[in-house]
Design brief:
single chain; 106 residues; mainly alpha; Non-ribosomal Peptide Synthetase Peptidyl Carrier Protein, Chain A; 4 helices
C-alpha cells in the first residue's frame, strides 16, 4: 500500500470515517472490522464522486483489506483510458430471446 498517492489517502480517509481510525491499518479486513453493505456503498460512492470514476462494489469484495483496496483503486485510476466499469459481457441469445448480461453472483 503506497500511502503517498492521492487515491490511497482518499481510500484511507473514507475507510477511517466509516470504521474508525483504529481500523485504518493496511491489513484490516473491512468485513471483520464491522463493515457492511451500506458502508461499502457510502465509501465507494464517495470515492467515485471524488475521482469522477465509477468504482464497483466488487472492488471492495475482491479486495477487503485497506491495503488491498488502496492498491486496487490506485491501479484502476492509473488506467485512466480504461473505464472503471467496462460493459458486462453478453451471453449469446438462444431461441430468439434477448441476451442477458453475465452476473458474478450467478
Amino acid at each position: 500500500m503506497d500511502t503517498t498517492t492521492d487515491a490511497a489517502r482518499a481510500v484511507r480517509e473514507a475507510w477511517a470515517a466509516h470504521l474508525g481510525e483504529a481500523a485504518a491499518t493496511p491489513d484490516t479486513n473491512f468485513f471483520t472490522a464491522g463493515g457492511n453493505s451500506l458502508m461499502a456503498a457510502a465509501i465507494l460512492g464517495g470515492l467515485s464522486e471524488r475521482f469522477g470514476h465509477g468504482l464497483p462494489m466488487r472492488l471492495l469484495v475482491r479486495n477487503p483489506t485497506l491495503g488491498g483496496l488502496c492498491d486496487a483503486v490506485g491501479e484502476l485510476l492509473a488506467g485512466a483510458g480504461n473505464p472503471a466499469r467496462p460493459p458486462e459481457p453478453r451471453r449469446p441469445a438462444s431461441s430468439g430471446q434477448a441476451a442477458e448480461p453475465d452476473r458474478p453472483w450467478d
